[in-house]
């Protein structure tokens, strides 16, 4: 058809032709998904992949906007949504992608008369995907008023293990209201508030406010549309947990499951744990509480509460999955009222349960868990929370144990960890050195220090200085062998790595190489061109300072050579001083016995 023709009749004919084409696309499933990673903005660990849909390559309906616009005009929005959902899940399973799948779903399709509850769940079983790996991402494109009906639909999916995300916060008609009504697990910041955020104070303040709201609501924020290192760096500093965008990775039919080591000078920290050897998760707070099934009667629950004074709550399950919680005080108070025991004693315990208990996956870190508890409100503090594994009931946890564990970690972190990097400080460094001496095993002490750091800090500000310190912490932690090596933050811009791996020397050379590749991103083009900058020194005289570099002095420790961490610290400091006498990033190794010359290795 000639697309240049105009007139009412021609417009109708064009729509008819496009509707026929759309019907064929849906019927023949001529749709293909692409996947874009969503990553932790600090560690670079992949949270999941958003599934995005594309139409036939040579069709005007190839891109999603005209595709879904045409579906709306043709009255095929629900059919297209169902088809997209199915092909996206199928391909995700075929590719065996890790982590979660963020599945775009139009709220209209959940409330459509054609929607069959349980259909998605059954289909997931057929293709071998667990519902816990699916995040239903609600895409709001039209004004929406039936909040209650949508909340009931969302609650159904939650009970079956799905997670919920709200798309495009800041755009659309009523998504702040939806956030309040649905309490999603994730909220996505619209890309409008991300792009060039470093140049727009209003956008920065908006995101800062959203971070505070998310913290109160126990929701995790995902920034969309990250396209520059400056955006990524500011979003991290503002406390945004996750992000996606072209800077990180473009949507692809077969996305890589291996994230690059660094992006725009920002080095991911990986999955390393800083202040402790292992991250504390909800599973560590597990309390075994025998559950009831929804077919059990209230009289059974009453006897359990009466016989066990320490039983604070009883989970209620259906096919092994928690659907509610019997709260001790609420239950006994209700049974104590006249005739209530006679009226409700033989009825299902589901009648008296709390239908929206706090449920958390066993692998939830306790910081996130504490946010969820606080967001749930004071009524939930006495009841505790239900723990699940892959959606099935595992046990319970108490808020008292949660608060106690958080307090212990805070005290430990304050005592032992550097507050900026989270790496172990002087006390654990000294203890680790003494343990290695006592073990009689040889090891290497690498003392790392930034060159010309103070002038950089004075010129670019303490925030940029902190980022440079974090860069060194991330690179060191990434390059060492976590199974045998130890990285500590002495303070300021000084770091120590205690290494027992056989390939310690090439690893340290990689540290210097990674730093030299990343550090240019922290300087202005003018200073990069001059390979340095001019700044007044302590005497007030203008002095030229080279670009910041990294010096590492290495001490090889043999059994019986040193008596304590004090002696080793002094010898390592001398090696570091020698390293700093050289220009640029250098590695110096003491290869002889104490007191003899130090060799240089570039």
Automatic annotation (TrEMBL):
MF (Gene Ontology): cyclic-guanylate-specific phosphodiesterase activity
Domain of life of the source: Bacteria
UniProt cross-references to SUPFAM superfamilies, sorted A to Z: EAL domain-like, Nucleotide cyclase
Stretches assigned to the EAL domain: 15-265
Annotated Pfam families: EAL (PF00563), GGDEF (PF00990)
Cited InterPro entries: Cyclic-di-GMP_PDE-like (IPR050706), EAL_dom (IPR001633), EAL_sf (IPR035919), GGDEF_dom (IPR000160), Nucleotide_cyclase (IPR029787), Rev_trsase/Diguanyl_cyclase (IPR043128)
Segments forming a coiled coil: none
Identification of the protein by name: Diguanylate cyclase/phosphodiesterase
Species in which this protein is naturally found: Paludibacterium purpuratum
């Amino acid at each position: 058809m000639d697309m240049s023709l105009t007139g009412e009749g021609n417009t109708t004919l064009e729509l008819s032709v496009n509707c026929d084409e759309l019907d064929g696309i849906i019927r023949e499933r001529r749709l293909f998904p692409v996947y874009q990673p969503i990553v932790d903005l600090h560690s670079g660990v992949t949270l999941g992949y958003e599934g995005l849909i594309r139409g036939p390559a040579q069709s005007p309906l190839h891109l999603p906007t005209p595709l879904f616009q045409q579906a709306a005009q043709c009255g095929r929005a629900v059919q297209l949504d169902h088809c997209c959902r199915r092909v996206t899940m199928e391909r995700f399973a075929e590719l065996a992608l890790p982590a979660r799948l963020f599945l775009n779903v139009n709220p209209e399709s959940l409330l459509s008369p054609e929607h069959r509850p349980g259909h998605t769940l059954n289909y997931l079983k057929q293709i071998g995907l667990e519902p816990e790996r699916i995040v239903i991402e609600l895409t709001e494109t039209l004004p929406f008023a039936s909040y209650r009906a949508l909340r009931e639909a969302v609650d159904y999916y939650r009970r079956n293990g799905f997670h919920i995300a709200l798309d495009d916060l800041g755009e659309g008609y009523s998504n702040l209201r939806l956030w309040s009504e649905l309490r999603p697990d994730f909220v996505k910041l619209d890309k409008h508030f991300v792009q060039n955020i470093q140049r727009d104070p209003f956008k920065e303040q908006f995101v800062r406010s959203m971070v505070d709201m998310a913290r109160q609501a126990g929701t995790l924020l995902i920034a969309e549309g990250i396209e520059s290192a400056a955006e990524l760096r500011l979003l991290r500093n503002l406390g945004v947990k996750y992000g996606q965008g072209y800077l990180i990775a473009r949507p692809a039919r077969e996305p890589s499951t291996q994230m690059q080591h660094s992006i725009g000078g920002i080095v991911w920290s990986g999955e390393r744990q800083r202040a402790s050897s292992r991250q504390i998760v909800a599973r560590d707070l597990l309390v075994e509480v025998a559950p009831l099934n929804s077919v059990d009667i209230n009289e059974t629950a009453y006897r359990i509460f009466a016989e066990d004074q320490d039983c604070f709550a009883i989970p209620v399950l259906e096919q092994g999955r928690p659907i509610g919680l019997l709260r001790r005080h609420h239950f006994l108070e209700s049974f104590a009222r006249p005739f209530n025991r006679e009226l409700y004693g033989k009825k299902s315990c589901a009648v008296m349960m709390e239908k929206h208990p706090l449920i958390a996956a066993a692998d939830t870190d306790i910081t996130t868990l504490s946010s969820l508890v606080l967001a749930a409100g004071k009524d939930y503090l006495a009841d505790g929370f239900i723990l699940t594994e892959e959606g099935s009931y595992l046990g319970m946890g108490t808020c008292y144990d949660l608060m106690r564990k958080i307090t212990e970690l805070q005290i430990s972190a304050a005592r032992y960890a550097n507050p900026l990097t989270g790496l172990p400080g002087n006390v654990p460094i000294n203890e680790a050195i003494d343990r290695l001496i006592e073990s009689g095993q040889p090891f290497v002490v690498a003392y790392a220090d930034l060159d010309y750091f103070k002038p950089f800090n004075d010129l670019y500000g303490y925030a940029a200085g902190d980022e440079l310190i974090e860069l060194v912490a991330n690179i060191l932690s990434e390059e060492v062998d976590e199974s045998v090596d130890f990285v500590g933050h002495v303070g300021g811009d000084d770091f120590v790595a205690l290494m027992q791996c056989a390939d310690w020397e090439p690893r340290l050379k990689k540290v210097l190489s990674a730093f030299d590749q990343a550090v240019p991103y922290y300087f202005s083009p003018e200073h990069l061109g001059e390979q340095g900058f001019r700044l007044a020194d302590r005497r007030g005289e203008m002095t030229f300072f080279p670009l910041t570099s990294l010096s590492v002095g290495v001490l090889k420790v043999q059994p019986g050579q040193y008596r304590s961490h004090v002696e080793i610290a002094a010898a390592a400091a001398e090696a570091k001083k020698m390293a700093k006498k050289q220009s640029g990033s250098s590695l110096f190794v003491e290869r002889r016995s104490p007191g003899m010359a130090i060799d240089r290795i570039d």
